[in-house]
């Protein structure tokens, strides 16, 4: 008789020490059973409402992003894949993000750090669709650190609160366990040949081990990678140095909605952040 563990990497609120140990070893972990049915429906109602208001242009520009709004996705009108700075307009969602179990883990991993709510997109509600018109389907291999190798905000740890469970049908996260320990090079080579920002560190990771192979440039199979599947309501944590990618859905009618954000090292920005700059840059692309 072969036994399987359907909850590998999954922990409940009464086992945060074990979750912590798993996270330190593998660079990711899942916290299950944190939210009630009412919490979940409250979050979804708030986020879906904000999403509609972004699509209708009823919210401040910073909550949307013109490049990410797809006017062909729905025949009936505009559609927004993202709501940025969602914790500033969604109190139930903000309370869920600041659940004491999440805060206590983040305080272990990013001591003296902060939840980024007021700059660089803040906490984001994402509605990923497989349909052709969607502005988001999948994302290739990266570590989050590579998005800002010049910044002084690492280490960092990210969370994703799953409104919808994940599967091959609606897309899922792929990770290389333990890769958060490797000295991952800044993206000297990348798909869009973007130049490295000035002041970038050459590598980022918790330890100095050289990666055993170069990070794949796109969606190729990475030796040692595993698939992470979440249930509705799961909170998935991952280290900002972890190698990860997101697989696209196989079912074109599938929906994958979640709320994601991260804690970063150091104090929060003194003032409301750089969203205008980001917005203008994206709009001009
Ligand atoms: Fe990422």
Tell how many strands the DSSP assignment holds.
16
In CATH terms, the superfamily is: q2cbj1_9rhob like domain
Note the beta-strand portion: 15-25%
Helicity, in percent?
A: 10-25%
What order do the SSEs take from the amino end to the carboxyl end, as H and E?
Answer: EHEHEEEHHEEEEEEEEEEEH
Largest sheet: 8 strands, mixed
Total helical segments:
5
Task: Furnish the topology, listing elements before pairings.
Layout (H helix, E strand, L loop, with lengths): L9 E2 L4 H11 L1 E4 L5 H19 L13 E6 L2 E4 L1 E2 L7 H7 L2 H10 L4 E2 L8 E6 L9 E4 L13 E7 L9 E4 L8 E2 L17 E2 L21 E3 L6 E5 L4 E4 L7 E10 L10 H10 L1
Parallel strand pairs: 1-2
Antiparallel strand pairs: 2-14, 3-4, 5-7, 6-16, 7-16, 8-15, 9-14, 9-16, 10-13, 10-15, 11-12
The structure holds fe (ii) ion.
The site of fe (ii) ion has 3 residues, from loops.
What are the key terms here?
single chain, 285 residues, alpha+beta, Jelly Rolls, 8-stranded mixed sheet, 4-stranded antiparallel sheet, 20% helix, 24% strand, globular, disordered C terminus, binds fe (ii) ion
């Amino acid at each position: 008789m072969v036994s399987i563990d359907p909850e590998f990497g999954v922990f409940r609120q009464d086992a945060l020490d074990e979750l912590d140990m798993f996270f330190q070893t593998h660079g990711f972990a899942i916290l299950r059973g944190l939210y009630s049915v009412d919490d979940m429906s409250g979050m979804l109602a708030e986020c879906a409402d904000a999403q509609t208001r972004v699509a209708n242009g009823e919210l401040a520009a910073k909550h949307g992003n013109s490049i990410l709004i797809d006017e062909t996705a729905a025949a009936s009108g505009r559609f927004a894949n993202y709501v940025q700075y969602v914790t500033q307009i969604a109190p139930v969602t903000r309370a869920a993000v600041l659940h004491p179990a999440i805060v206590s883990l983040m305080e272990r991993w990013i001591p003296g750090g902060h939840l980024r709510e007021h700059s660089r997109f803040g906490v984001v509600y994402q509605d990923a669709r497989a349909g052709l018109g969607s502005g988001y389907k999948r994302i290739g291999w990266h570590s989050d650190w590579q998005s800002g190798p010049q910044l002084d905000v690492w280490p960092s740890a990210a969370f994703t609160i799953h409104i919808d469970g994940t599967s091959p049908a609606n897309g899922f996260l792929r990770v290389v366990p333990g890769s958060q320990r490797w000295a991952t090079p800044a993206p000297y080579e990348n798909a869009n040949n973007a130049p490295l920002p000035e002041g970038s560190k050459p590598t980022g990771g918790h330890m100095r081990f050289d990666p055993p192979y170069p990070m794949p440039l796109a969606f190729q199979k990475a030796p040692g990678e595993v698939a992470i599947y979440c249930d509705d309501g799961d909170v998935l944590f991952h280290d900002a140095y972890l190698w990860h990618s997101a697989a696209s859905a196989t079912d074109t009618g599938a929906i994958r909605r979640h709320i994601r954000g991260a804690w970063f090292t150091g104090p929060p920005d003194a003032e409301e952040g750089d969203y205008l700059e980001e917005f203008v840059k994206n709009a001009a692309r």
